[in-house]
Amino acid sequence: xxxxxxxxxxxxxxxxxxxxxxxxxxxxxxxxxxxxxxxxxxxxxxxxxxxxxxxxxxxxxxxxxxxxxxxxxxxxxxxxxxxxxxxxxxxxxxxxxxxxxxxxxxxxxxxxxxxxxxxxxxxxxxxxxxxxxxxxxxxxxxxxxxxxxxxxxxxxxxxxxxxxxxxxxxxxxxxxxxxxxxxxxxxxxxxxxxxxxxxxxxxxxxxxxxxxxxxxxxxxxxx
Length: 223
Known about the structure:
Blueprint: E1 24-25, E2 27-32, E3 38-43, E4 46-51, E5 54-61, H1 67-75, E6 77-82, H2 88-94, H3 104-107, E7 112-113, E8 122-123, E9 128-141, E10 148-161, H4 174-177, E11 180-182, E12 188-190, H5 204-212, H6 216-219
Antiparallel strand pairs: 1-11, 2-3, 2-6, 4-5, 5-10, 6-9, 7-8, 9-10, 11-12
């Protein structure tokens, strides 16, 4: 089949687009507003977009969970908490489009703990948290008047990983953590298997270092 998104002429019962770009990691974003009130919301338009230094982004719709984007732009800070299978129910609770100033963490019964370098707190039960400084934003126009998607980019300045999820070889135990990801429709998935593919051919050594996320200052250091 072929369809044009601007015409929405796919002829299906459900729009297929969100089931094409899958799986999508979930950025569970905690922020504070200018009055110091906590906001916690999950975003499946989320991804890392650089690693030396590390940057992450999330996209917020203007007619739904917009508080995270506004808070990040107003205060210059946010925290990304890793969403996991064990925390699915709490994540679902915090996805509600509640009024500004309502504490979603309290609604979900979540304990929040202080960050080291930014003011927004972290979800204590999350195995990995990224402390972020706001870097830039971009507005993507929507079809309807007054609608837009706001892309927030943050530079990661602090990383928390619970020690029990670091394996003896120094790698994160992803299979034990079971990160949560969004599919399309009402569907989710979680990572419960991992396999390795070794780089081959031209540039093998440099590609390997890049896949490891090795800082460029180490990768290109004279031998």
